[in-house]
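Researcher: Good morning. I'm working through a list of sequences from a screen, and I'd like to move beyond sequence-only analysis. For each chain I'm collecting a predicted structure so we can compare shapes side by side. This is the next one on the list. No need for commentary yet; just the structure.
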Amino acid sequence: MESMGKKKSRPRRSFTSEFKAEIVELCRRGDRSAGQIAKDFDLTEPQCATG
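Model: Good morning. Structure tokens for this chain:
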């Protein structure tokens, strides 16, 4: 039987204000889904969600 180990989390990352503004603009533009943008930039979807 395989052991059910927890997935090791990566260190917390920090992002510049410019990077955050770019991601927000891409999400607002609407030509790609938030999920696709998150995947493209190696983010989790909640980090990219706008509301």
